């Protein structure tokens, strides 16, 4: 009996980001997800370079070598990022998470750094088999904050470990043994920071094909607001002799590693063995130059308490070997030193790095842009208000409101933050003039937008009442359909115009085309 995997992979830009900084790879031996950071260009380059470095591992490697080979590739990826930044210092600060699996039959090597995740669905139970390398997770581990507090912590995305080319990389590495029927999920935090563990569990359990699973998971994240890029790789452990005959599936390359200029809202690769590979033959330096030539446009967290931890020894079929000790304290000390330097004004580089970040949030009921990090050190804020938009939080759809109130962070440029606000403008509960259901002109909020969560309610009725039957035939038709206006003031102006029209039709019906015949209106 020959054991192998059936796989699918997709990456989606989400609903608010200007570009896709995630990358993914899925092949018969290698699965990987990388979530880039450092701005639109830097994040794409970092995640794509990591995937490009791992791609040659998608070959038959002896079982006793897969752990060492995979770990060495991670170190090479980190060195590649160092070389890229050396060649282009403007990319300083870019980096990427990386979660990858290298397979040989039942044996699977797992490497992990950052806050992308790997899950295992086995015998109906879902296990999270990676540990987030985030400041918030470390505070949870140390008992300093609760899981509920972690879900809304302003720095829940602050990484303690990542591939960034700045020093020695320290990934978690383990060797595991798979079982027939296992289903694995690798994903970026654009999924697990929006979709709950229970919902992920249900989605993975309810569909038969990996391709169906990745599509459903991405759809769930977008329905939850899609505040970040979303990337999913799903693989089923199968008996290869039982699979339909045919050529082996082609590897899938998705996200920034496939094509950094996909249309918003379009998943980056059809998955299910579909080909992809825009990176072939391109060096990271060449890719950086190409990307930099492009015009610059600019959750409820998964509840870890609801997840089962994988027992290291209780399950003989799942062996965890030589997990690297997590030397978390050097990272925490490093962050503390940087933050103290920020307060003391002693580190221009660190301060510049903080000031190179932007986030979108709510302030006094408006959607605004802050520059810096959404946190305080020794009572001093690490951010300041940069721009105030004219967009009101209460005008947004419920999921967009939730995203803004949680803050949409990790935006690498002011242009990216402005682009995020432009996207939010397309997610408002619109103001419109329409019939109130009793033949009277009224002003609505969210008219016909129930599917987007809007209240679909009358906020003003014309007073004195304007009956639709007193309007011209064209205006009557428009009101029946609903006339969308930019805001309440414009809607009130429109109602006044309709009032004048109704008055003219009543007093001089022949002066306007389409006025109702006398005696035909109420």
From TrEMBL:
What does the record give as cofactor? Mn(2+)
Disordered: region residues:
242-294
Q: What is its EC number?
A: 3.1.3.16
Enzyme type, top EC level: hydrolase
> Does this UniProt record's set of keywords contain Transmembrane helix?
yes
Sequence intervals crossing the membrane:
329-351
**Pfam families (UniProt xref):** PP2C_2 (PF13672)
What are the UniProt keywords, alphabetically? Hydrolase, Manganese, Membrane, Metal-binding, Protein phosphatase, Transmembrane, Transmembrane helix
Q: Which reaction does it catalyse?
A: O-phospho-L-threonyl-[protein] + H2O = L-threonyl-[protein] + phosphate; O-phospho-L-seryl-[protein] + H2O = L-seryl-[protein] + phosphate
Q: Out of the domains of life, which is the source?
A: Bacteria
Which ranges carry the PPM-type phosphatase domain? Answer: 6-237
Ranges of biased composition (kind: Gly residues): 270-279
Q: Which PROSITE patterns match?
A: PPM_2 (PS51746)
Q: Does the keyword Zinc-finger apply?
A: no
Which GO terms of the molecular function aspect are on file?
A: metal ion binding; protein serine/threonine phosphatase activity
Report what the protein is called: Serine/threonine protein phosphatase PstP
Source organism (scientific name): Actinoallomurus iriomotensis
* Lineage of source species: Bacteria, Bacillati, Actinomycetota, Actinomycetes, Streptosporangiales
């Amino acid at each position: 009996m020959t054991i192998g995997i059936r796989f699918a992979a997709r990456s989606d830009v989400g609903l608010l980001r200007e570009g896709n900084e995630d990358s993914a790879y899925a092949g018969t031996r290698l699965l990987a997800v990388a979530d880039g950071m450092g701005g639109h260009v830097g994040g794409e380059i970092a995640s794509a370079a990591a995937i490009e470095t791992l791609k040659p591992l998608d070959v038959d490697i002896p079982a006793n070598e897969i752990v060492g080979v995979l770990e060495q590739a991670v170190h090479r990826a980190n060195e590649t990022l160092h070389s890229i930044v050396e060649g282009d210092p403007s990319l300083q600060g870019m980096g990427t998470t990386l979660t990858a699996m290298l397979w040989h039959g039942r044996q699977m090597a797992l490497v992990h750094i950052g806050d992308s995740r790997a899950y295992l669905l086995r015998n109906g139970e879902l296990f999270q088999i990676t540990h987030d390398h985030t400041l918030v997770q470390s505070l949870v581990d140390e008992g300093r904050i609760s899981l509920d507090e972690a879900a809304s912590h302003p720095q829940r995305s602050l990484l303690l470990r990542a591939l960034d080319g700045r020093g020695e990389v320290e990934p978690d590495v383990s060797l595991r043994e798979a079982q027939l029927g296992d289903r694995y999920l690798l994903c970026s935090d654009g999924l697990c920071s929006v979709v709950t563990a229970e919902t992920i569990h249900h989605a993975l359990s309810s569909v038969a094909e990996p391709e169906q699973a990745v599509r459903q998971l991405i759809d769930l994240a977008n329905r939850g607001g899609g505040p970040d890029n979303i990337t999913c790789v799903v693989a089923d452990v199968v008996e290869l002799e039982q699979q339909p005959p045919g050529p082996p599936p082609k590897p899938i390359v998705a996200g920034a590693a496939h094509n950094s200029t996909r249309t918003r809202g379009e998943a980056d690769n059809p998955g299910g063995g579909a080909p992809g590979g825009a990176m072939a033959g391109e060096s990271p330096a060449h890719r950086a130059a190409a990307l930099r030539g492009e015009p610059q446009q600019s959750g409820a967290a998964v509840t870890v308490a609801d997840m089962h931890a994988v027992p290291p020894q209780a399950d003989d079929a799942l062996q965890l070997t030589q997990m690297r000790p997590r030397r978390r304290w050097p990272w925490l000390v490093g962050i503390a030193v940087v933050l103290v330097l920020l307060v003391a004004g002693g580190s221009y580089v660190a301060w510049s790095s903080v000031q190179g970040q932007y986030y979108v949030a709510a302030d006094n009921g408006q959607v605004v842009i802050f520059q810096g990090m959404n946190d305080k050190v020794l009572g001093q804020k690490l951010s300041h208000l940069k721009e105030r938009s004219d967009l009101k939080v209460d005008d947004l759809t419920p999921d967009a409101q939730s995203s803004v109130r949680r803050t949409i962070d990790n935006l690498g440029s002011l242009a990216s933050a402005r682009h995020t606000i432009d996207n939010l403008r397309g997610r408002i509960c619109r103001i419109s003039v329409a019939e109130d259901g009793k033949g009277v002109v009224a002003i609505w909020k969210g008219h016909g937008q129930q599917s987007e969560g809007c209240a679909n309610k009358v906020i003003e009725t014309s007073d004195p009442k304007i009956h639709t039957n007193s309007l011209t035939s064209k205006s009557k038709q428009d009101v029946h359909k609903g006339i969308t206006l930019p805001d309440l003031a414009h809607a009130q102006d429109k109602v006044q115009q309709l009032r004048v029209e109704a008055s003219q039709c009543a007093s001089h019906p022949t002066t306007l085309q389409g006025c109702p015949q006398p005696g035909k209106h109420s």
